[in-house]
């Protein structure tokens, strides 16, 4: 029972911090700041999905989290390559 309360607290903390990081995604000031913010939010969402899977016992959600993490990694690489060609910020 105490473990479930800890998972719920971690869930709310991750959601709160993801909302805080969303300010950086929306306001910038530069494109690299926005990319890092977006990658941070996506990573937090992956952990949230894993927490929900553990709380509910629906472990097929872990597969979804892994796919989202792979898409996040590839997307980050593509954006980094774009920024390199565009000349930075």
UniProtKB/TrEMBL annotation:
It comes from the Archaea. It holds the Pfam family MrpF_PhaF. The keyword Membrane applies. The chain crosses the membrane at residues 6-23, 35-54, 60-80. Its main location: membrane. GO terms for cellular component: plasma membrane. It is a multi-pass membrane protein. GO terms for molecular function: sodium:proton antiporter activity. This is Multisubunit Na+/H+ antiporter, MnhF subunit. The lineage of its organism: Archaea, Methanobacteriati, Methanobacteriota, Thermococci, Thermococcales.
């Amino acid at each position: 029972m105490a473990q479930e309360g800890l998972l719920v607290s971690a869930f709310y903390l991750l959601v709160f911090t993801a909302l805080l990081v969303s300010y950086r995604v929306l306001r910038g000031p530069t494109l690299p700041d926005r990319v890092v913010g977006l990658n941070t939010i996506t990573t937090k969402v992956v952990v949230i999905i894993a927490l929900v899977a553990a709380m509910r016992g629906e472990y097929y959600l872990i597969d979804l989290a892994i796919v989202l993490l792979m898409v996040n990694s590839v997307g980050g690489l593509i954006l980094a390559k774009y920024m390199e060609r565009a000349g930075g910020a």
